[in-house]
Amino acid sequence: MVAPTSAAAIHSDDDSAKRRQILDGARAVFLEFGFDGASMGEIARAAGVSKGTLYVYFADKNSLFCEIVEQESLAQGMLSFEFVPDRDIEATLRAFGNAYIALICNPRGASAIRTVMAIAERMPEIGRRYYERVIANTIGRFGRYLQAQVAAGVLQIDNCDLAAAQFMQACQATLFLPFIFQTSEPPSPARIAGVVDSATALFLAAYRAPKASGSN
């Protein structure tokens, strides 16, 4: 016998649907008008809700924008990347590097980054929230994976968070800045792979643990 759906569950589903509706409308408005040009009234119209309903779910434009940025990262796989402990280290670095650059060097990801960079000086809380929940979160997860590889004797690293950030920066070389400042098109998968391969080789040359000498 199928258990009846509770009123609380129905209410929760309705809330989730309404929240998604608002976020979809807000995303369209931010993409069209940018952060400064977007208004809560315009967002409410695009989402098909009243302003009163909008404020039930989000206190202000800042919190709404930050949630969209976080969802963009989650949707595109950056924060959900799986660092499998027993996978070959070289394969993991390459897979992560390619996924990371594909995320930040595409129009949707870049739009969020440019908007955060443009408003962070005036509204540092947005910059901090984006950095902590997106960038620092990823560095921390990657750093914990590297620490596990150190414990397993695969790598020799004193500061795993620093090493994680170094690898991510090396993967960006010649790709991210030209793209984010709109001097080049999104890099091709082949070009991304070439830069990530180089970053992987540099990283392992610096941090791979030497193999023990075999006995004669």
Keywords:
216 residues, mainly alpha, Arc Repressor Mutant, subunit A, Tetracycline Repressor, domain 2, 2 domains, elongated
Give the arrangement of secondary structure elements.
Elements: H1 7-37, H2 40-47, H3 51-57, H4 61-75, H5 89-104, H6 107-119, H7 124-151, H8 160-172, H9 176-180, H10 189-207
Summarize the structure.
The protein has 216 residues and is mostly helical.
Give structural notes.
- This protein has 216 residues and is mostly helical.
- The chain has helices spanning 7-37, 40-47, 51-57, 61-75, 89-104, 107-119, 124-151, 160-172, 176-180, 189-207.
- It has 2 domains: 10-58, Arc Repressor Mutant, subunit A (Orthogonal Bundle), CATH 1.10.10; 73-207, Tetracycline Repressor, domain 2 (Orthogonal Bundle).
- It is built from 10 helices and no strands.
- The protein is elongated.
CATH architecture of the largest domain: Orthogonal Bundle
Class by helix and strand content? Answer: mainly alpha
Number of strands: 0
CATH topological fold name of the largest domain: Tetracycline Repressor, domain 2
* Fraction in helix: over 70%
User: First CA to last CA: what distance?
Assistant: 69 Å
Low-confidence stretches: 5-11
Average residue pLDDT? 87
The coarse overall form would be elongated
The Rg value, from CA coordinates, equals 21 Å
Largest sheet composition: none
CATH homologous superfamily of the largest domain, by name? Tetracycline Repressor, domain 2
Q: In total, how many domains does the architecture comprise?
A: 2
Strand fraction equals: under 5%
Count helical runs: 10
Q: Tell me, what is the CATH class of the largest domain?
A: Mainly Alpha
Q: What is the H/E order?
A: HHHHHHHHHH
